[in-house]
Amino acid sequence: MSQYDQGLERQAANHQPMTPISYLQRAALIHPDHIAVIHGRQRHSYARLWADCRRLASALVARGIGRGDTVSVLLSNTPPMIQAHFGVPMAGGAVLHSLNTRSDPATVAFQMDHAETRVLIVDREFSALAAEALAQAKVQPLVIDFDDTEYPDDAPHPKGEPIGSLDYAQFLAAGDPDFEGARPGDEWDAIALNYTSGTTGNPKGVVYHHRGAALMALNNVIHAGLGRHPVYLWTLPMFHCNGWCFPWTLPVQAGTQVCLRWVRAGAIYDAIADHGVTHLCGAPVVMTTLLNAPAGQKRSFPQQVVFNTAAAPPPETVLRAMAEAGFSVTHLYGLTETYGPAVVCEWNPAWDALPAPEQAARKARQGVRYLSLDDLAVMDPDTMQPVPADGRTLGEVMFRGNNVMKGYLKNPEATAEAFAGGWFHSGDLAVMHPDGYLQLKDRSKDIIISGGENISSIEIEEQLYRHPAVAICAVVAMPSEKWGETPCAFVELHEGHELTEAALIAHCRAGLAGYKSPARVVFGALPRTSTGKIQKFALRARAAELAQAPA
């Protein structure tokens, strides 16, 4: 035993488990009157938010909820969703399970059964979905209805009827605003459960721990550039990787969270202009929504707004248009298993002098690891050795560090497979550039093998985006008797533009090798997930049908 171990044991005075709950407590103590949440006409101070979270925890404990119990929520981006991120884990160590509001009833029922849901809090917008899911589920949770008094008059559909035995406002009011609440006994304790959007079979339950959530909150402050009192607009669903951990992030800098039920261009511009929004996150489709908004919905604002985006890298034309509209775009990358984005395309000032196309090429890279990620590598999955950092050699992206999930709930086989060799295997294929910046090339299942040659769908998509008429695109493999597979492109055009299949294929051939150019181009709306990601599995099925169709 070293001299530095003798009589220097860990104890309560010098070691406490990390948890994001402490960030909210601190913000409420130091900035009690600062606005923490804006929701329609409502303004909630930090003192009120902290008291409401304590009320929620107290009310849940009074109903027998405690360590390891799952509290599921079917909520949009509203105050109860923010309250749940703190109040649920404070309820004796319960675990928050955020349901995707656009899921089908069977998926919701499966997740609640798998998670052994004890309580379900449901927004009345989703009453019908919840009722049908409960009818299919084996679990019989306590159901609490949230009746949003700020539900817009111009809503696309009316609120559903209550389906539970309790009203959320009354449930909250019955709680104790001075309730101490439970802190994790160990920072390894679970704080949240998120299900992957699996394309085959049932989704897997990804478990987050308090340490990872606390560190991700600090990472977000650093890598998203959150100064004191930022104003954050909720364009990203909080059910998606716990909103990339931003509900836990904003209290670190005593920021204001602006709720948004639906992603609509007019509402986004109004929030930015009226509330001084400084940051927002979202998929590329949100950028398209903003840029394509009618002139009557757009508003000017003096501040520059940081827009954090993941998924497909924005093309140069979009980056330029966003900059002209007042947005600074930061490209991120991650997975549900890494608490959302864990890689950032951190801008190097040396790139400022590069021509615009080369700057866009740098911005298209996924980037470098977040601060609390111990390591990020592109590896040969067979040898578990890093591939050469030459910008050309493909390997699998692997993560290791504190913001990697605990594992998959009740699925030790999948957990062992994901963590084989001491790394988390992402399933994404990438290259490592000499400067240490990672760039995705494809999902392992999305690589196109044509005549024995590997073709990156992302490379083709980048060329498609260089055409000014292309708004959204996706490339998948199409079966071919001659080549095994050939690229097939699915394309949405900007409003008012027309383009032929032959013209777009010619455009691709001008910038790509012939065998990499799409054999087919299909125009029309692309299927998306609730978070705006393109559903490539659906496109692969359509491409297979095209291959079977008569020429």
Automatic annotation (TrEMBL):
This is 3-methylmercaptopropionyl-CoA ligase. InterPro entries: AMP-bd_C, AMP-bd_C_sf, AMP-binding_CS, AMP-dep_synth/lig_dom, ANL_N_sf. GO terms for biological process: fatty acid metabolic process. It comes from Paracoccus solventivorans. Transmembrane segments: none annotated. Pfam families: AMP-binding, AMP-binding_C. SUPFAM superfamilies: Acetyl-CoA synthetase-like (SSF56801). Its EC number is 6.2.1.44. Signal peptide: none annotated. Residues 25-409 form the AMP-dependent synthetase/ligase domain. It catalyses: 3-(methylsulfanyl)propanoate + ATP + CoA = 3-(methylsulfanyl)propanoyl-CoA + AMP + diphosphate. Belongs to the ATP-dependent AMP-binding enzyme family. Residues 459-533 form the AMP-binding enzyme C-terminal domain. Keywords: Fatty acid metabolism, Ligase, Lipid metabolism. One of its GO terms (molecular function) is ligase activity.
